[in-house]
Amino acid sequence: MGETSVEDAAAAKPKPTIVVPPRGSMVESLFTSGLGAMGFSPGPMTLVSSFFSDQGPFSFSQLLAGAIASPKLRDYANEESWGDSSENCKTSDDAGFKRNRPMTLVVAAPESLSPPFMLPPGLTPSGLLNSPGFLSPLQSPFGMSHQQALAHVTAQAAFSQSYMQMHAELQRSPADTSTEALVSHSSPSPSETLTEQINSEPRQLESSKIESSEVSQSDKKAAYVTTGDKPASDGYNWRKYGQKHVKASECPRSYYKCTYANCPVKKKVERSHDGRVSEIVYKGEHNHLPPQSNKRKKDTSVALDREVNNVDENVQELQNDETEEGPVIVIDDENDDEPLAKRRSSDEGQSVPASSHQTITESKIVVQTRSEVDLLDDGYKWRKYGQKVVKGNPHPRRKIQAFSKHDVGFFGPPVDQHYSVVLVTDLVVSNPGPT
DNA sequence: TATCTTTGACCCTAG
DNA sequence: GCTAGGGTCAAAGAT
């Protein structure tokens, strides 16, 4: 991922904002009360894209922008007075929006789409991205890194927006605002509904995949990225064929192949030093149904179950790390034609069928925060590994790195003492599974 | 004995 | 053409 492109992305577009409101309950209650009871059963991208179906075909990026730009949502934000003001959030004229917003979470939208979009209250970015209500790794069959989760945040936001449209009269509930409330909800949340949908029937998966394919027509890359996946329950058998330390990550990376005959699917699993899974990257598409019985080897099951447990632990810890004030986060999703990573020609041939449903976009997420980068409240710890003066930017750029794939340019405070941080990651819109 | 994991070496690609 | 880095192979060891 080129640093230049990150600079371009940061410099080219003004970043409208999404705001993390103070701890509240309404949207949270949306996620906890569940949409499943409403009888929804399309795939996740169907759900998201259907909200904007009357506006023509959209890429995932556009969907995200659409969520951000929703006037309904803005109206709702005004009504609820979730946040107080910030100069960085002067992307709309809604004074009410500015009134009560605390530290802000800002997600960028295309230039023409400026109204901010409110995220569920009561969640800091880290908690938000890792809460079960947002397709937690345990619930999602393919999980996501926190940057990828950012994209899901906006997708979920679009989802909640639609929900709010359908329930305009929904009253504000005094629900528990604690993270535990999100964890222990009994009825399926919208995200759960989505996840269950993905998990359920191959036929439904087919539908989901088609939707995701439609959503990301412009994407040219294949392979899907997951984090904190639930390997033990992904239904497939894997054989480890390699492990390596990669420079981009402090975590050792393990390589797995699907053991099914002639199945081209591979996955990479990265673990942190303490053995926790930090990222799982799938590549290719299964050409078979998942094994129905417990045919997996005992060792594999044990190892993978351990991964699942680790991911659970991670969610808990990140939630515990939450603070009241969240950073300003800007999502700038760009679908460029840059190669995702070096790929061997043999891989390209086997893993990217012409009709591949797997899509991936290289996403740049700009985070604005009042805090120093080391304190960036996204639930992860960062280390500085470089600093340089960037042409056209009076502030030195500090480079920080988290687990892997997150190349970050860090700018000085541009406005109102907010720092801009560009996260570069692989945003996934995909539904792995049998065909 | 079979299967799986480990790990060093090799291959390929990008810069 | 060289080098660095990621991905894969395959022999050896472990279970």
UniProtKB/TrEMBL annotation:
WRKY domain ranges (all copies): 227-291, 371-405
Keyword Iron-sulfur in annotation: no
Coiled-coil portions: none
GO molecular function: DNA-binding transcription factor activity; sequence-specific DNA binding
GO CC terms of this entry: nucleus
Region (Disordered): 169-237, 307-361
Biased composition (Acidic residues): 319-338
Biased composition (Polar residues): 174-202, 348-361
Subcellular location: Nucleus
Main location per the UniProt record: nucleus
Entry-linked SMART domains: WRKY
Biased segments, Basic and acidic residues type: 203-222
Keyword field: DNA-binding, Nucleus, Repeat, Transcription, Transcription regulation
Name of the protein in its database record: WRKY protein
Gene name of the record: WRKY13
